[in-house]
From TrEMBL:
Native organism: Streptacidiphilus cavernicola
Key words of the record: Signal
Name this polypeptide is given: Peptidase inhibitor family I36
Secretion signal, residue range per the UniProt entry: 1-27
Domain of life: Bacteria
Length: 153
């Protein structure tokens, strides 16, 4: 009887590990693009609902968060649909997908480029922000037509 219980527990643990490993890691936004002092965080990609850094915003980070201790952002974002604009202002709580008008790349201390893609899964036209790029109105046909986000060195 004891052997069966141990075997059943091992099977449940193995099934749980398989389920957990099937969940893809994604960069997860957890705040708007400015801190309480009104200055931009370092090492993030910001997307705003309106042109000129207006309206609601949300921040995405890559490789461990703003200061290396916040968040778990470790990979690209193949689909912006589940993410919403988080700060107060026009567009708050709306999906980021096909609603972003302005973007910035505050990766000033690392050589990390931000790519904003027209289609999900990194397809179609791309708009690239270089490290330290100030907020720009999205060009290359991506104004309010953005579906995925990736970073590259």
């Amino acid at each position: 009887m004891r052997v069966r219980l141990i075997s059943a527990a091992a099977a449940v643990a193995t099934a749980g590990a398989v389920l957990l490993s099937a969940v893809p890691a994604q960069a997860v936004p957890t705040w708007g693009c400015f801190n309480a002092a009104g200055t931009s965080y370092d090492s993030i990609t910001c997307l705003w609902f309106n042109s000129g850094q207006q309206g609601s915003s949300t921040a995405f980070w890559f490789n461990g968060g703003v200061n290396g201790t916040e968040g778990t952002g470790t990979s690209n974002v193949p689909n912006l649909l589940p993410y919403t604009f988080m700060s107060s202002g026009a567009g708050q709580n709306q999906s980021v997908k096909n609603h972003a008008a302005t973007a910035s790349n505050t990766y000033s201390t690392a050589v990390v480029k931000t790519n904003i893609w027209y289609n999900s899964n990194y397809g179609g036209a791309v708009y690239q922000l270089l490290p330290g790029d100030a907020p720009y109105r999205l060009g290359n046909g991506l104004y309010n037509q953005d579906a995925s986000l990736s970073w590259q060195y």
